[in-house]
Amino acid sequence: MEPGDPSRLTVIYKKDGSPTFEVLKNEPSENPPTDVSKTPPGIVTVSDKKSGRFLHKIRPASETSAAFGKLDSGEISARITDRLIQVGGITFENNKFMGAMAGVVVDAKGGVRVGAAIPSKVLEWLRS
Fold first, then answer.
1. 32 near 21, Cβ under 8 Å?
2. Confidence (pTM)
3. Does residue 16 lie in a domain region?
4. Which domain holds residue 49?
5. pLDDT value at position 110?
């Protein structure tokens, strides 16, 4: 998530070491593995192109929310504000990441890593 009004959210799918943008700065990004669509209110939904299975949806706003699909058909919810990151059962509130930006990583089995360093290549893409 990048600061702004509204904040801008980017979602990157990584498979076999190669990244693919699914959502780039709140907008759907055409890509080979997923179908990405956006509703008039701005909700971006991502599904697997082959199976049609729901992967995630993002609602960018002053309080960004996301739902990530899991392999067992359940969902992991996430909420991101200017003061809070809440993913699954993990909540970071009133924290600061000093010296570098940080990301939230959600794997296909529902594992969550918050505060993950953003790889330099990804930072390069986001700045372009």
1. no
2. 0.67
3. yes
4. 11-127
5. 64
